[in-house]
Design goal:
With 213 residues, the protein is an alpha+beta fold. It has two domains: 55 residues; 143 residues, Glutaredoxin (3-Layer(aba) Sandwich). The protein contains five helices and eight strands. A hairpin with a 4-residue loop joins strand 2 and strand 3. About 24% of the residues have low confidence.
Amino acid sequence: MSEGPEAGGQAASGKPRRGVLTWAVVGAAVVGAAAVVYIIGQSSTKTAPVVASVPVAETPVAFAKKLSTPTQPTPAPDYTFYDSTGKALTVADFKGKVVVLNTWATWCGPCKVEMPTLARLQAAYAGKPVEVVAVSIDTPEDAAKAVLFIGQNSPLKFYHDREMKLVFKINAPGTPTTVIYGKDGMEQARVAGDADWTSPEARALVDKALAGG
């Protein structure tokens, strides 16, 4: 008879143990699910800032590496290019304005990437003596394509180097190359390669030339 109460005691004590175990499993599942939600939430909130911050950190360094300034006064070349009407022009025809002279071509990928930023640069200086002169070095046969492309980047105008020698005349290593001339027609700075012309570094170059210093 003494075994009955003892066995009953084990059965009675066994139920609470199963109950504790069940709640422990449920609790662990809830905590685990919450942890997964937290990790997913943290990943989604951290990804965008990290991706967005990369170009911001790298842009000034990249721009600085492409930038150079003349060690002595350097005038713009007396070299002829043409506007959309076929009128012959030289940089001297823009005297009194800051000229952002850019060489580009439809076959040049980096040129086409940076062109919208040059268009926004021109728009930003609307009403001021700043002229972005993007000169195509495409062959005469490809001039029509160049006209169409520039038409997609208003307010830029079409200019064409029919002889395809402007790159050599400005002593550029290749295209795109952009040279900034002051209102006196003297070179202020140049950027070899594509650039973001909406960046603070680019705008600072134009502002300095505009101020005459």
